[in-house]
Amino acid sequence: MKAIRCTKYGGPENLILDHFEKPSPKANEVLIKIKATSVTASDVLLRRMNEAAIPKFILQLIFGFGKPRNPILGMVTAGIVEDKGAEVTSFNIGDAVFAYGSISPMKRRFGSYAEYISLPEDWNLAKKPTNTSFEEAAAIPYGGLLASHLIDQTNIKPGDSVLIYGASGSIGTSALQLAKIAGAQVTSVCSARNFELVQSLGSDKEIDYTSDSAEEKLGVYDYVIDAVGNSKTSKLKEKTKLALGEGGKYISIDKGVPKTPKSAFIKLKEHVESGKLRPVIDTVFPLEKTADAHAYVEQGHKRGNVIITVSH
After folding, report:
1. Same domain, 190 and 116
2. How far is Cα 216 from Cα 299, in angstroms, rounded to an integer?
3. Angle made by CA atoms 66, 70, 72, in degrees to the nearest 5
């Protein structure tokens, strides 16, 4: 099968098209013929591996020294079940599915930058939402699950005020919509070019973090959600940490290890099928251009998700 090999940690030029043996599903696994995957910020961080010395050492203990232990990156899958193990009962050959290759911090599997992947049926794997394309389905799991992790740390009640810093990214667009589902009044922090996008997702107010007057537009919030983490900061971001009302809470994607339970995954599917949650796609690249997709994501200005289509 065709797949993208990460030859070593570093720049996107280390991602090359190669050939691998097609995987065979174990007794509890399904073999998925991949139609689409996505390039996430986490994929880029893993490929670069340019953290400080101690965090870098720990990460390489987990993922491999010098190059990834599994040379095929990617954790998001949308495709068709081509084969299944003898114990699989939830899926049939021909089912259109989508998946995220992590069910817990200790159970994760890379390998979606490829034509095929095998995954256990009880992981974050489900039939594709009926109202999405494969590309749209691939835009759901990463941002949706991390946004769910953020929202789960709140107790949003109808009318609560929520500020989302980084509202136009893959995590932010999902967090915005999940906060609106919970009944919040949402203020979105992003660049002015993304105002129309976040408004289309339900944003009630927008702040352009590049504006000289951005800090003056801050209100008082029940929750401030940082959807971009420590990789991006600004004077406005530091001010948002102080823009909390009594009992307010600041929540960052970089704090703690995100939980990705299957219950959250299934809830995302239900929200998409009901029309309450819309996957957002910035750009689509073919598998052969995965290095270009990484370079694009690395710029840090994508809107929603960057998708890879896999042709056969």
Report:
1. no
2. 28
3. 105
- Residue 299 and residue 208 share a domain: no
pTM of the model: 0.94
Neighbours of 130 (CB within 10 A): 9
Distances (CA, A) of 312 to 2, 79, 132, 196, 273: 9, 12, 20, 36, 28
Residues 6+ apart with CB under 8 A from 267: 148
CB neighbour list of residue 160: distance below 8 Å, 6 or more residues apart = 182, 183, 184, 185, 222, 223
pLDDT in tens, 157-207: 999 999 999 999 999 999 999 999 999 999 999 999 999 999 999 999 999
The long-range contacts involving 205-213, CB below 8 angstroms and separated by at least 24 positions, are 207/236, 209/165, 209/234, 209/236, 209/237
Count up the domains in the chain and report the number: 2
Beta bridge partners of 304: 169
